[in-house]
Each structure stands twice: as structure tokens, then as C-alpha cells.
Amino acid sequence: MDQNNTELKVQMEDVEAYLRSKYPGHSFEVTGCTPLAGTARDYDEWFYNTLDAEGNAENESSFVAMGRINGDSYELTDDFYGELIRDEIVKNIRKAALEAGFSVIDIKASFWEQFGSDEAKDISALDVLTGKINAGNDIKIFLDGSALKQSSYENALVELEKVFSQKKFTGDYYVVILKDKDADPARDRLYSDSFTL
Asked: What is the mean pLDDT of residues 42-65?
């Protein structure tokens, strides 16, 4: 094995150790790396999966961690915290929308920011949702158009934005109004638009 492969293997082991340390109770497997060498990026991209008790991958696609050389150290950041807080974020958004009279079909939440080990301990879903911790919230909300009480789709969107603003929610929101609760999200769209808080 040449020196580059040996260094890469050691780094892979370090990335797995970092993830296990940051997220106790979860198992990880690093599946690959796209090194920064020869690219315009200033970081390595590490691809990893979470593993179940039998050692099988739990996720359909790999998560990404970024590694940067900082002086004599190698610093890692990742986006796995989003998996830990996603359900709580969705629950808060759904509750706010339902309280305002909207019929929610589905909510998809993702996060654009990656955090290092200093951010993992006590990440609060509410702190992320309200912007106390900027995680780059990217939220897609699917509403049942047959249950809307507003006179127009535009008015519904304005009202939903107002409700989220009053709750101090932050992020980019993409709202899709579907024909009804059984509608196909790709074919049965009545209206869609976005707003940022």
C-alpha cells in the first residue's frame, strides 16, 4: 500500500472515530472520500452511512462530512445533527400550521450548514428553527388545497408566512398547495411559491 492510500485509510478511521465520539449510540461507516487535491475546494468530502445493529446501512444515500486542514490539525464538520432534530423541527412546523387552520399533508426539512464537534452536544430543534443556531433551514411544506379557507393561494401563503414569523421561525420555506390530501406531489400541484424568514 503506498503512502497516499495509508494516509487516506488513517484519515477514514479518524472520521469514523470523530462521528462515533460526536454521536454516541450511532454507528458509522465511511464509504469514500473526494480529496481536495486537484480541485477548487478547500476541503475533503467524506461520504458516510449510519449502520444498524447488524452493520447494514440505514440511509438510502450517503451523508457528507467536510475535512479541512487548519495549521497542524485536521478539522471535521458534518450534517448528521439534522437527522437527530428533523422530527422535532417537523413537529413544531406542523403544529404551528395546524393551529393556524392549515391542513398539512407533508413536511420535508433539511439543513445546509455543517457543524463541528463544538455544536453537537446540546443542539435544540427549537434553537435551530428560530435561528438561534443558524443551520440553513430548508423547509418544504405540502398543503391540502381542498381544505384552504383563504380566498386565494397567494393569501394562504401570506398568512402562513405571518404565522411562522410570529413564532420566530427562520429559514427558506417552499410551500406547495396540492389538489387534495391524496394528490401526487409532482402532478397535482395547484400552486407553489417560497418565502424566507
From this structure: 88
